[in-house]
Amino acid sequence: VRTDGSDSNSGLVNNAGGAFLTIGKAVNVVNTTLDLRGYTATIQLGDGTYTVSSAIFLNPCDGAAVIQGNTGDRTAVVIKNASNDLFIVNGDGWQIQYVTLDMESGKNAVTLFVGKTIVGNINFIGYTGAKCFYMYGATTDIYITGSITISGNFSKFIEVGNCASCYMDAAMTVSGPCTFTTFIESRNCATIIAVASSLTTSSTMTGTRYSVATNGVLTAPSASTTYFPGNSAGTTETGGQYGGGY
């Protein structure tokens, strides 16, 4: 996929006459045309900015599919939304890596309703009300890995609800100043496990550190209640459990 490509091209050659123009076209080809039979398809994004005018649905594939930017400089590929979420995951097999996700106010970068997904080596740029990850339902699983950088203003970095599960093993940097409502939230029997992730904050962080409610679970590398960024204490209520120290 290239910013000078065309969706009438084959998508198989890395030049203007061969590459697709939009990420959505490439995803649609993987979902509806390719018979992966357990193999992996890579959607390679050329450098530049891609504005997504409608959410990209990642439906189940019979192998694995990777959406990948510049592995040497993840700021070189920027995916922006117009008035919609960026990616909506509806099935297993997808991985997103080495890109910058630039979110409009009130929208989500990655929304999961069904399936297992890997997301790693991502820069998030947010505006008021945006969420980096939103997961809902017992059939959703996400693994956050590599290096994650967060800047701007957010509603939440992660919100996990209704028995969804999130496993995070990432080196995270929160730069700013950065303002959010709640940095990380687990509720309604959902689980977030933040294993051995490093966390670096470089500027003023404004917001609630965490929220765990209605039998949700949040496990951090440290049992310290000040581990996650923010200037307001985290909260636990209605059976919510916060712990760490493993």
Question: How would the blueprint of this fold be written?
Answer:
Elements: H1 23-32, E1 40-44, E2 48-52, E3 56-58, E4 64-68, E5 77-81, E6 87-90, E7 94-102, E8 108-126, E9 131-136, E10 140-154, E11 156-161, E12 165-174, E13 178-187, E14 191-194, E15 199-201, E16 205-213, E17 217-220, E18 235-237, E19 241-244
Quantity of strands, as a count: 19
End-to-end distance, in Å?
42 Å
> β content, as a range?
over 45%
Q: Biggest sheet, in brief?
A: 5 strands, parallel, barrel
Succession of helices and strands: HEEEEEEEEEEEEEEEEEEE
Radius of gyration: 18 Å
Spatial order of the strands forming the largest sheet: 8-9-11-13-10
* Overall outline: globular
Share of helix among residues?
under 10%
Report mean pLDDT, rounded to a whole number: 94
Description:
4% of the residues lie in helices and 52% in strands. It is mainly beta and 246 residues long. Strands 8-9-11-13-10 form a five-stranded parallel barrel. The chain is globular, with a radius of gyration of 18 Å. The mean pLDDT is 94.
